[in-house]
Amino acid sequence: MNTNLPDKLYYSIGEVAKAFDVNASLIRFWEKEFDIIHPKKNKKGNRLFTKNDIECFKNIYYLVKVKGYTLEGAKQAIGKKGIDTTTEEIDVVKKLEDIKNELIKLKMSFDEFGTHQETKLE
After folding, report:
1. pLDDT tens digits for 19-75?
2. Rounded to whole angstroms, what are the CA distances from 36 to 23, 104, 112, 113?
């Protein structure tokens, strides 16, 4: 989950959906299901999500899409652990994914280096 959103006060539902690679309808559904999400609405009724809402979506996404929780299970986990604990867990997973990617890059460069060395020896 890589949410590269620009730094601003409010995000449209389209921006949020794109950041999480889901449909806007899922964002609306999660908004209704989880009482931790409180978007503002403009005069037209468009939802405007804050950074706090984005953090909540990160937690929900992680629990439901990554960990495989049901919606009820995710609600209970957020209620028991609190949003901060889940956020910390997500941060640790993100750091581990980054480390894994760096290690894969290093392995590929070593493999490539070994291939070049074998060619020179022949």
Report:
1. 999 999 999 999 999 988 999 999 999 999 999 999 899 889 989 998 899 999 999
2. 20, 37, 49, 51
- Looking at domain 11-121, which of 3.40.50.2000, 1.10.1660.10, 1.10.620.20, 1.10.10.10 is its CATH number? 1.10.1660.10
- More confident site: 69 or 88: 69
Domain spans of the chain, in order of start: 11-121
Q: How high is the pLDDT of residue 2?
A: 56
> Phi first, then psi: what are they for 12, rounded to 5°?
-75, 165
Q: Is 82 left (phi over 0), alpha (psi -120 to 50) or beta?
A: left
Q: Which residues pair with 41 in a beta bridge?
A: 47
Tell which residue, 53, 78, 41, has the closest CA to residue 3. 53
Strands (E) in 1-122, as ranges, are 11-12, 40-41, 47-49
